[in-house]
Amino acid sequence: MSQLLTVEGISKGFPGVQALDGVNFELDRGEVLALVGENGAGKSTLMKILSGIYTMDSGRIAIDGDEVDVNDPKVAQKLGISIIHQEMNLMPHLTVAQNIYIGREPRTGPWLRDGELNRRTKQLLEGLNIHLRPSQVVGDLTVASQQMVEIAKALSYDHTKILIMDEPTSAISISETQVLFGLIRSLRDRGVGIVYISHRMEELRQIADRVTVLRDGQYVGTRRMDEVSDDEIISMMVGREISAGYSSRQDVPAHTGELALSVRSLSTKKLLRDVSFDLHKGEILGFAGLMGAGRTETARALIGADPVSGGTVAVNGKEVRISGPEVAVRLGIGYLPEDRKRHGLMLEQDVAFNVAMASLSSNKAPLGFLREGRARKVTDRFIKALRIKTPSSRTMVKTLSGGNQQKVVIAKWLARDCDVLIFDEPTRGIDVGAKEEIYKLLNDLADEGKAIIMISSELPEVLRLSHRIVVMSQGRVTGTLTPDKADQESIMKLATQNIEDVAA
Amino acid sequence: MKSYMKATVAVLAAAVMTLSACGRGNDAASSGDGGKSNLDIALVSKGFQHQFWQAVKAGAEEKAKELGVTMTFDGPASETEVDSQLQMLQAAIERKPDAIGYAALDPEACVPLLDQAKQGDIPVVEFDAGCNSKVPVTICKTDSKTAGALAAEHMAQLINKKGKVAIVGHSQINSTGVERRDGFIEKMKKDYPDIQIVDIQYGDGDHLKSADIAKAQLAAHPDLAGLYGTNEGSAIGIVNAVNELGLQPGKLTVVGFDSGQAQIDAIKSGVMAGAITQDPMGIGRCTIDSAVKAVKGESMDDVQDTGSFWYDKSNVDSSDIKPKLYQ
Amino acid sequence: MTTQRAEDLADAGTQSAPGESVAAEAARSGRFAALGQGLQQVLAFGTLIALIIVFTIASPKFLTITNLSSILLSTAVIGILAVGTTFVIITGGIDLSLGTAMTLCSVVTGLLLTDAGLPLPLGVLGGIAMGALIGLINGFNVAVLGLPPFIATLSMMLVAQGLALVLSGVKPIYFTTVDGFSKIALGEIIPKVPNAVLVLFGLAILAGIILRKTILGRMTYAIGSNEEATRLSGINTRRWVLAIYTLAGVATGVAGVVLAARLNSAQPQLGVGYELQAIAAVIIGGTSLLGGRGSILGTVIGALIMSVLINGLRILAIQTEWQTVVVGLVVLVAVFADNLRKRRAEGGGHR
Ligand SMILES: Nc1ncnc2c1ncn2[C@@H]1O[C@H](COP(=O)(O)OP(=O)(O)OP(=O)(O)O)[C@@H](O)[C@H]1O
Ligand SMILES: [Mg+2]
């Protein structure tokens, strides 16, 4: 029997960028193939070609040995190819059910059958162990829940033969990841071939059978997972030797003890109850918890992006009232949002425009004139420092790869030079090499005396970088740990504490 | 939800403010020296802001006072708002006045409403422009075709019965616009074969638009002998065009329609040769008079022409014309 | 700024070590970027030239100094309104109160100059201040009360219309007693170029500089691209929205004065429908109704396209009804062409 999917010599150029250059790979039935590469290596582009969103310039795609012409997403669907996109493609005003079955709604003649739609969706979600109501409006969901809707949507096609997942776990937490992996295994056992894109090595170890590496749009090679080390994969990706993820934890305490920020009893109507913590100069304070624990909500309430129902905030020992993000920034507090597309970027503007956004007011000439030349210079500096892969500072952000978009958000806040920086999932979608650079950058910022809050769902990252770790659950702080006393287990225990209290 | 409420409140507030702005037009005559007769007459006009309608209103008020009846006067903000005028008519019918005076913006849309008035036993008289309905007992208006012909007659004389003429109309839909144009064209065709009507365009009575139209017509036909504007806005547009192009007064024969300060000034300065005026106060008086007669069941002619009049430099200040010029 | 250009990327090629040669590339692509930025304007400008050529061939009466001067003058009022509202549209908003607010401003100028007998400059400033006030209120309703711009300005459109009638006593106000007032629009500092046209171009240049070179302009684009991201960047978006609507209001005030000067009178019943013409000019000029994209140059060209088109059709004695149809079609084609261009630039092989 021939291969499930054979891809040969695929090339694709965008104006000025050769995104793919003669890429090959093969996918077997009942196999999970990991696809890895640096940000901008061409992974998403390759997958978009397979799912009919882009047309390739040259190359050949065969399914079950027969050459196919995937020139339209509809064709891809018919051929049994489903995709979970890196950038979410849901319609925010529609419900979960409407999104999942868009274009395939159960109906009688012209009449929609909403009951049937919701029943089907409920069944699907239950089968996938996803706890969402079919009638919830997608725009109201957190990024993580939206990601779960995307996954459910891709899995709702019954005859899926090939499932493509483009960084499906970048927005969800460990427990959901485990649920997802359970699903992947059962699909694999049913003979579905799965292409799995991720920047997280430990995930690939858990789930993948083989790994294919791309670099700068070119095919580098394919290895069996059990025959290759992390370092080997990474050096295939970046084309040189680097080692990642083995540096030790922070010394405790590293900071001077001078208070930068002190939060007492912060509460919101929706979720937060009496959130209190201190942040010192030179400290990296990690925030851990499950999705929906209230970490992002804490950050947003703190900077005044959402209304607060009680509590106090003191900056440098002085109590302040932060009525909106502009006040927060004036006080030297910057927030990098987790949802870069919705809250972080102007996709239709260029890189320099985005990088300049947070520092405009401190960087203007008399009469409100902009200092364009200076802004471009700053941008060029960050493009280099963060290795943002972009043709120039005048390139529209929309055309950058996901990871490079994330770097643009980081550059925006580094350009502003805040005393307190709140990073919400800063390494989401960023490749291994770049992650190391961001870790180093966070450490350098802390060494300079900046105070940093790092919200992350990746426990290894939290454990490695934080001087102290705040764990939240259901809108409350359930504990604060020092890294010497913390491990995955103790954090998970605190992160699920309230839930157990309720259950008991 | 909350912002939706805010939005509603804002819209309501705006609506109230606008209505109160309109309202100022209505209250003037309502008190009268009431008591003698308790007749209540509702006039629904084509507009109220234009000077012409203000003059109609003044005439009506004068007559209402004389006959001791109370009246209201309503009209939409612009003459394109057929719909809101119908709503005003509807409101008037629901008020159950003793009689309704109505000037139709659209001759068809009003038919069902007038039937409704008939069912409610409210007699209807029309003014200025009629509805395609058997319900109204009479109409007080300027016969616009006659008026258009009068304009043509004077234009022909002034340009020595030959040459090219163009028209800046104010509407290709409403009856005054159509009839003033057709009366003019028919007269020229019939009596003055050497006069050629080269272009007709419509500027909605908008001064600015009409000026730009007149300029384009003058550019296309540099040898134009005369320009005819079918209402005040169109006529003033032509005057503005002449001024902006710096044409010598009198080189082009401009014939206007209706009156107003600017037109009177233009006639006195010689930019405009003359214009046709109607007797809007006469229309107002006739309307109230007929309405009262209709209530009493007296019979009247189907059409009562209140007349159209030529005025120029020579007679603009005469006692004949002066009362018919509305400012 | 927002258009993704082939030229912009042309020199980049495949990069083996991203970042290392970025500075050099940026420098190289810079000159292309300037060119690419203007692509939409080039397109619109081409359309304008094509129209002029077509009309010149169709009628020998079209391309005369006098007629060109007439065309420019007829562009002035709509053009000034369009320049102001370009800012609002780039923020993703819309202003329906333009036309009647303009009328209200001309009425206010009229009252100040005739009834109150103020000196000319004060009357003019008063009209402009009225425009600014209306803009400020619009901005307040949108930014602070959070009303959708469509509704906020719709109600303002009615309020302004009503107030113009109330204040004027439902009668035109003539400026015959005010010496030199009509010179504001009809005087000719440059022969054959009416002053109203100079006002338009002066204002357009100023607005272009504000939009491209100042923080106010930057905020206009930013809010239109992603208001929430702008806010989270530590920017008081409310304040800027307020400023932007006020600025647009100033342009409305200027339009009101120019209109009054051209007619040498304030006509309280005028103005309805002017807002749609202004918005049409902005859209023909390539500004996106979705926000985040647009330019003043485009708007000016858009306004010129409209007036050239209408003037040409009038000279050819095309029926008024058909003129309207043609203008409608041109708006449609402009938007369609812009969409097509955008899709090409972004999608690569996207079908
Ligand atoms: N629509 C587009 N127009 C122009 N260039 C594009 C477009 N889409 C992608 N590119 C470019 O193609 C290259 C590959 O992008 P792609 O999104 O495939 O990377 P990726 O491997 O998925 O990266 P990441 O890990 O960051 O998601 C990048 O240089 C990107 O800038
Ligand atoms: Mg990608």
Features:
heterotrimer; A: 504 residues; alpha/beta; Rossmann fold; 3 domains; 6-stranded mixed β-sheet; 34% helix; globular; C: 351 residues; mainly alpha; ABC transporter involved in vitamin B12 uptake, BtuC; two-stranded antiparallel sheet; 2 strands; 72% helix; 1% strand; disordered N terminus; disordered C terminus; binds adenosine-5'-triphosphate; binds magnesium ion
Briefly say what this structure is.
The complex is a heterotrimer of chains A (504), B (327) and C (351). Chain A is of the alpha/beta class and 504 residues long. Chain A has helices at 43-50, 73-78, 96-100, 114-127, 143-155, 174-189, 201-207, 230-238, 295-302, 325-330, 340-344, 351-356, 372-385, 402-416, 432-447, 459-465, 488-495, 497-503, and strands spanning 5-14, 17-27, 32-36, 58-63, 66-67, 81-84, 107-108, 111-112, 162-166, 193-197, 210-215, 218-224, 259-267, 275-280, 284-289, 310-315, 318-320, 333-336, 420-424, 451-455, 468-473, 476-481.
What can you see in these coordinates?
The complex is a heterotrimer of chains A (504), B (327) and C (351). With 504 residues, chain A is of the alpha/beta class. Chain A contains 18 helices and 22 strands. Chain A has 3 domains: 166 residues, 3-Layer(aba) Sandwich (Rossmann fold), CATH 3.40.50; 69 residues, no CATH class; 245 residues, 3-Layer(aba) Sandwich (Rossmann fold). The relative contact order of chain A is 0.12. The mean pLDDT of chain A is 88. Chain B has 327 residues and is of the alpha/beta class. Chain B has 2 domains: 157 residues, Response regulator (Rossmann fold), CATH 3.40.50; 147 residues, Response regulator (Rossmann fold, 3-Layer(aba) Sandwich), CATH 3.40.50.2300. The N and C termini of chain B lie far apart (49 Å). Helix content of chain B is 45%, strand content 18%. Helices cover 72% and strands 1% of the residues of chain C. Chains in contact: A-C, B-C. Chains B and C meet through helix 1, strand 7, helix 7, helix 8 and helix 9 of B and helix 4, helix 7, helix 12 and helix 14 of C. The complex binds adenosine-5'-triphosphate and magnesium ion. Adenosine-5'-triphosphate (ATP) binds next to strand 2, helix 1 and helix 14 of chain A. The site of adenosine-5'-triphosphate has 21 residues of chain A, from strand 2, helix 1 and helix 14.
